[in-house]
TrEMBL record:
Belongs to the UPF0065 (bug) family. Residues 1-24 form the signal peptide. InterPro entries: BUG, Bug_dom1. Keywords: Signal. PANTHER family: BLR1237 PROTEIN, TRICARBOXYLATE-BINDING PROTEIN. This is Tripartite tricarboxylate transporter substrate binding protein. It comes from Neoroseomonas marina. Pfam families: TctC. Transmembrane segments: none annotated.
Length: 327
């Protein structure tokens, strides 16, 4: 399916929220209720950080109580399934991870789940370059140093991921393909477990959104090689960009966003999207994200739906080029 066709499909499915009269559904529809924001991964990772960043203020803006519930398992399938099966009344939402909603979808790694069919976009929370790190014992100060070392020692360095189709997996395989290096893939169930092995030296290379890694870099427990963008991260000004390291246009930003299950009325989704953007305009919230290395980047529901369609198609093409499969 071409990108244009995918976009047209979205307009007939759940992910692209169509314009609808907002007077038909107001924030009072959820007032006094408990809203569950499902994180389909363990606590401690970027999805969990993004959900907890907005949950309290998002709930208050709706006159409701919003609770974050971690439902990990099956490469996020357990959590996604729970949202799909939830009542379609706006009381159960998903904090979605870009690789799950686009990367895993592109390689058919979510079983029967199709994000563009089964979910409606509400809005983006953050959009941040990934941080590339190594264990300090790896004798490489830059990404180019690491690439040169990996070429000298093919298959001797491990890299971690959250499973096939995760951004860590897809991104590192794309990096391997671009750089012509051989790294060994070691999948993990969650960020906490990954970081323990990374600090212990059992994993030598890792890429992830900055929040779980930045404190470890500052404490000298990990070494930062670069961020996966053409410009330096404004919150990490001392760390070079991938473009400065000879790898322009990697396009490996990590984003997290809120989604509703298909079937939630479009006017309610529009209202949720508007409230989320209002919450993300708060400077205190933006500062908390920035201090952790994340960049708040609100979007409309329509823009998020377009991004999901576009990136799913891009990852499908990259997966074919780099021979990435769900197996």
């Amino acid at each position: 399916m071409t990108i244009t066709a995918a976009r047209r499909a979205l307009l007939g499915a759940g992910l692209a929220t169509l314009a609808a009269p907002r007077h038909a559904w107001t924030q009072g529809s959820l007032a006094g209720r408990t809203i569950t924001l499902v994180v389909p991964s363990p606590a401690g990772g970027g999805t969990d950080f993004s959900a907890r960043l907005v949950a309290d203020s998002f709930g208050r803006s709706l006159g409701a109580t919003m609770v974050v519930e971690n439902r990990p398992g099956g490469n996020d399938v357990v959590g996604l399934t729970s949202v799909i099966r939830a009542p379609q009344d706006g009381t159960t939402l998903l904090c979605g991870y870009c690789a799950t909603m686009t990367g895993r979808a592109a390689i058919n790694g979510l079983g029967d789940i199709q994000p563009m069919r089964d979910f409606q976009a509400v809005g983006q929370i953050t959009d941040t370059p990934q941080l590339f790190v190594t264990h300090p014992t790896v004798p490489a100060a830059t990404l180019q140093d690491f690439i040169a070392l990996a070429k000298q020692k093919p298959g001797e360095f491990n890299y971690a991921s959250a499973g096939n189709g995760s951004m860590h997996h897809m991104g590192t395989e794309y990096l391997k393909h671009r750089a012509g290096i051989d790294l060994v893939h070691v999948p993990y169930r969650g960020t906490g477990e990954t970081i323990r092995d990374l600090i212990a030296g059992r994993i030598q290379f890792y890429m992830n959104s900055p929040p779980p890694l930045t404190p470890l870099v500052r404490d000298g427990k990990l070494r930062a090689l670069c961020v996966s963008s053409n410009e330096r991260h404004p919150g990490l000004p001392d760390i070079p960009s991938a473009a400065e390291q000879g790898m322009p246009d990697l396009n490996l930003n990590v984003w997290f966003a809120v989604f509703a299950p298909r079937g939630v009325p479009a006017p309610m989704v529009a209202m949720l999207s508007e409230k989320l953007r209002e919450v993300l305009a708060d400077q205190g919230l933006r500062d908390r994200a920035f201090q952790a290395g994340a960049l708040v980047a609100p979007s409309s529901a329509e823009a998020l739906a377009e991004r999901v369609a576009r990136e799913t198609e891009n990852w499908r093409r990259i997966a074919q080029q780099a021979n990435i499969t769900a197996g």
